[in-house]
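Page 42, continued from yesterday. The earlier attempt failed because a stray header line got pasted into the input along with the sequence. Redoing it now with the clean sequence only.
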Amino acid sequence: MVQIHVRGRRVAPAFCMARAVALGLAVVSTNLAAQVGGQGPQSPYEVVWALYVVTDGGQTRCRHAPAEVASAHQRAVSGLSRRHPRLLSLVRASPHYETARDHFARTTAYDPVRDTPETLVPECEVAAGVLKLMTDGRAGLAEVRRYEATLMRR
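This time it went through. Structure tokens are written below.
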């Protein structure tokens, strides 16, 4: 079995998928985009899935992280909700939302046997960082607008 470490901490396999999606979203940051080397989510489903992982799905996992990390993630989700309510409305109204939620529940949802508060720390920090990038600056606004346009295409 492959073990994955982030900043010297072993992380749960579910983190790998969530982290990959979160980092894909992080193209709003030039530095992270260079590390990821990707374009971020392109299809409406990919946008819904990626945002679900770092917002609603992330909340279900991050509430089990240490209090300060859980609180930071919650503040980041609240900040995105305040700054870009239209984006989250489009995500939650998308015909892909239920599919993303169900897929998350089957593959990534919190598992007390697999996920410990310590293994959730890097995942929740990455998710909060991505959300903060989306609420700060022109690059974040441009990416939010791209996601909104993608979701309005349906």
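Notes: The chain has one domain: 4-153.
Reminder to self: strip header lines before submitting.
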